Amino acid sequence: MKENFEDMIIEPPEEIVKRAHVKDWEKEIEKGKDIEEYWKKKAKDFKWFKKWDMVLDDSNKPFYKWFVNGKTNITYNAVDRWIKTGKRNKVAIIYTSEKEKERKLTYYELYTEVNKMANALKRLGVKKGDVVCLYLPMCPELVISMLACAKIGAIHTVVFSGLSVGALEERIRETNAKVVITADATFRRGRIIKLKDNVDEAVAKCPSVETIVVVNHANVPVKISELTGREFFYDKLIEGEDSECPPEKMDAEDPLFILYTSGSTGKPKGVLHTVGGYMVGVSSTLKMVFDIHDDDLYFCTADIGWITGHSYIVYGPLLLGTTTIIYEGAPDYPDPAIWWRIIEKYGVTKFYTAPTALRHLRRFGDRHPKKYNLSTLKILGTVGEPIDPETWLWYYKVIGNERCPIMDTWWQTETGMHMISPLPTAPLKPGSVTKPLPGIDADIVNKNGDPVKPGEKGYVVIKKPWPAMMRTIYKDEKRYREYWETIPGYYLATDVGKKDKDSYFWILGRSDDVINISGHRIGTAEVESALISHPDVAEAAVIGKPDPIKGNVIKAFLVLKNGKKLDVNLMEKIKEHVKHEIGPIAVIGEMEQVDKLPKTRSGKVMRRILRAKELGEELGDTSTLED
Ligand code: WTA
């Protein structure tokens, strides 16, 4: 935290205040102190087939329940209800890509597509509570499939298309997915990435999978054995299906989706979200934070394979009846102006991206954004990692032309929705996430749960439940409890932060062994287990090393087998192996061969020591070191 930025205050533009749903930020925070009352009011914006009996049930902590016994359907609220309004012919989704191809679907078209897919899934034997795995690029069929699952009560588990065979197999196996929906391929920077091939390899070891559905997305030939009655092309599958499908009446606490994310130890965790609270939390935060109105054109550059895409490309915008852009490709291809071109072409008003992309694009110079008319923009957003004040100011000046407030939104896969973030009418400080949102009780505390003094570092905690909170870790209740039991009674986010003298929050980074690479969470344990599964690697430890663009990169320390030497050839092989096991996001920036790893007497690798040596920091307490 730099002192000078703590004192820099940027007031909201008058035009924004005039129009804002929430005029008085501080007053709204005050109103949000009665969390039950606050979220109850928000829940009234939706269609409930049966009203809830109780807003919050906290009788079995930390297994909280929201909108108890309420019955609803999130797809009904995101799609069906707009068909009876003036939004019927409004564009719901604009798909565009680095090839600058375009496809638009109105709410009515989305409605019929979702219904056909929902009926097709039913015909395939998918029932309420079954898991469907979606391994798809950014394309309309991914959105349609998610909504189709939710319509009939199936649980979707989206696997980011940048993940590879090993990760895909693990997720299918753990969830016992019945159906996998994929595509022939996706593309990035002009390169084709075959997805169906990965599915074939993964599914070979997953007996739960009964059917594979393939979207012909990139016109790449694929092997598909329609004769077995097990594999279908998407278009053929939905051909002739009825375009009406009644919504399943879902309990507010029925599961909606499982989304895997990295934790500090062991395998990725299957974060489980449920229907009612997620619907209420996600749409009302989007409405407040991005001040969504009917005439907005909203563009979030995340991938639907991560929580930002789930909450704020698919569910949030559609629940508000907004037009949402889905973009497939890289931010800098065919040139580093592609996003600015999209903003000009469609007249984007609300733009939401990640610090890593901004740092990357800023390097190419101001001439790219300056070439385009970005004057339609009203509010900008950022998410995924701390944004440094310099990049914040560049975003504010060059992209927003000093007219657009920046919403630095802190949240997590587990929280489901924005938690600490300004509203457009808040006075901002570059690099600060400002304050917890109305209805959210967050703080910075020490290990005992006591608030720390202004300027002191501490842990980010949430003190009271919130509607879109995860309900459990799939098949691992123990890991769910850990979030609430490490500091008893509080949700521990495993981030470190500070509050300044004005009670503004500054997020400093993770406090656990999760590495944040370009806004993607990767667990050291995952990378290490991928490394160790290579035949020449005996032991491995990885650390995150700060990187000016990516935030962090991975550095791996390896003990090799049988006197092997880590030459360029072997390095390449090991990198390829990790790519196959996890995916291209797990980029190993550096590798170093070592004779042994620093360990505790109980045999745990002390990554802290490796990190301190690598970064030239103090070693700290070494009393538990074995040697
Ligand atoms: C980090 C992404 C600083 C944080 C929505 C958190 C942030 C992790 C911010 C969650 C922000 C997210 N400022 N750090 N505005 N937003 N983070 O689950 O370390 O992919 O714990 O969810 O990203 O990553 P996840």
UniProtKB/TrEMBL annotation:
Residues 33-78 form the Acetyl-coenzyme A synthetase N-terminal domain. Pfam families: ACAS_N, AMP-binding, AMP-binding_C. Keywords: ATP-binding, Ligase, Nucleotide-binding. GO terms for biological process: acetyl-CoA biosynthetic process from acetate; carbon fixation by 3-hydroxypropionate cycle. One of its GO terms (cellular component) is cytosol. Its EC number is 6.2.1.1. It comes from the Archaea. GO terms for molecular function: 3-hydroxypropionyl-CoA synthetase activity; acetate-CoA ligase activity; AMP binding; ATP binding. Residues 526-604 form the AMP-binding enzyme C-terminal domain. It is an enzyme of class 6 (ligase). Residues 86-472 form the AMP-dependent synthetase/ligase domain. Belongs to the ATP-dependent AMP-binding enzyme family. PANTHER family: ACETYL-COENZYME A SYNTHETASE, ACETYL-COENZYME A SYNTHETASE 1. This is Acetate--CoA ligase. It comes from Methanothermus fervidus (strain ATCC 43054 / DSM 2088 / JCM 10308 / V24 S).
